[in-house]
Amino acid sequence: MTATDPVALTADLIRCPSVTPEEGGALVLLEARLAAAGFECERVDRGGIANLFARWGPKGHDRTFGFNGHTDVVPVGNPADWSVAPFDAVQRDGVLYGRGATDMKSGVAAFVAAAIDFTRDTPPDGAIILTITGDEEGDAQDGTLALLDHMKDTGEAMSVCLVGEPTCPEHMGEMIKIGRRGSLSAWFTASGVQGHVAYPHRARNPLPALVRLLDRLAGHELDRGTAHFDASTLAITTIDTGNPATNVIPAECRATVNIRFNDAHSGDSLARWLREQADAVAKKYGVEIAAEIKISGESFLTPPGPLSELVARAVKAETGVEPVLSTSGGTSDARFVKDHCPVVEFGLVGKTMHQVDERVEIEQIHQLKAVYSRILRDYFA
C-alpha cells in the first residue's frame, strides 16, 4: 500500500487556522485519518479546548508506546510581513512555509504517518497511543493535562512517551531533550503613599523599595548548575509605574520577574524565597510589597537509559548524527507527561518557530517520519 505522506499531511494541517484556542479543523482532520487506519479515537475537549486521544491495539497493554504533540499555533502577527499567506502551506525551493510548519504540525504529521504505516504494515504486539492537544501554546491547563486526566479515569496508560516538539538548534538530529527546566513568574506590586516631590516626608515612595528588591533578586546566584542542568536564571521582564509627572511621587509601582530553574529547586522553594525577599525589603523601606506567583511547571529529568538510548539509536541511524542529551530550552507538555510515564522529546530544527515566514525543510519532515518509524520498529522488536 502507499505510504502515508507526512509532508502532505503537514500541509493539510497548516491550512487549518488553529490559533490557540481555535481547533481550526486540525483535530477533525487527524481523527478522520486515524479512525480510517483502525485507531480508536475520542475527543477529550475541556474548557473550550479541543483534544484528541487515539489508540491502536489493546487497552492496558504493558508495551504501549505513546506520542504527544499539539496542533495549536501562535498568532501570525501582521500577515503583510509574511512573504506567503501564513495558512496556505506554500512549498518553495524544497521548503514548506506556514504557521505551525516547525512548531509543531510537522512533528504531529510525522508521528501520525509513522504510526499509521507501522500498524498497517507490521502490526505490533502491543499498543500505540497518540495524545494531541490544542492548548500547548496557551495556558495549557485544558490540553495535555485533560488528556492525562482522561487516561487516568478510563484506565489508559502509556509505558513510555515521545513528545515531537522541535529539539534541534541548528541541524537535524543533533539534540534529544531528556528534561526541562521549571518556570516560575512573579508579579510584585509595591505600594506607598503618593505625594509632591518637594515634600517627600509627606509621601512614601515605593520605587526605591522595588528597585532594591529587583537588585537583590537579579544579583543573587541561584545555583551553579547540576549534573544535567545549566545554572538557574532569573530575568526581570518589566517595571511599570505609569507616572507621567515629574513632580509626583507615585503611590504604586509594579515589576515582573521570571525564573527558569533546575532540579536544585522546586517551585515552592523559590516562591518562599521570593516572598521572604519582598517582605524583608518592604519592612526596611516601610512600604507594602505584594507578590503574586505562578509556577508554570517544575523541572524534571528522565535519566539517560533505555528510552533515550532507543531514540538516540534511531536518530543516528536515520540522520547520521549522534544526538546530545539536553535539558535546555523552554517548557513543553513533557512537564505534564513526566508524571505519567518516562518521556523524552525529539523533533525538527526549531530555528523559525514563532517567526514570520515560519518554515521547515521538506526533507527534514521525511527524516523525522523515518526516525519515528524506526523507533516504533525497535521498541516493538
Continuous helix count: 9
State the secondary-structure class.
alpha+beta
Number of strands: 19
Q: Provide the low-confidence segments as ranges.
A: none
- Overall 3D form: elongated
Radius of gyration: 24 Å
Q: How are helices and strands ordered from N to C?
A: HHEEEEEHEHEEEEEHEEEHEEHEHEEH
Strand order of the largest sheet: 1-2-6-3-7-18
Question: N- to C-terminal separation?
Answer: 22 Å
Mean of residue pLDDT values: 97
Q: Can you tell me about this structure?
A:
With 381 residues, this protein is of the alpha+beta class. It contains 9 helices and 19 strands. The protein has a 6-stranded mixed beta sheet with strand order 1-2-6-3-7-18, sandwiched between helices. It has a 4-stranded antiparallel beta sheet with strand order 12-14-10-15, covered by helices on one side. Strands 4-5-19 form a 3-stranded antiparallel beta sheet. The two termini are 22 Å apart. The model has no long low-confidence stretch (mean pLDDT 97).
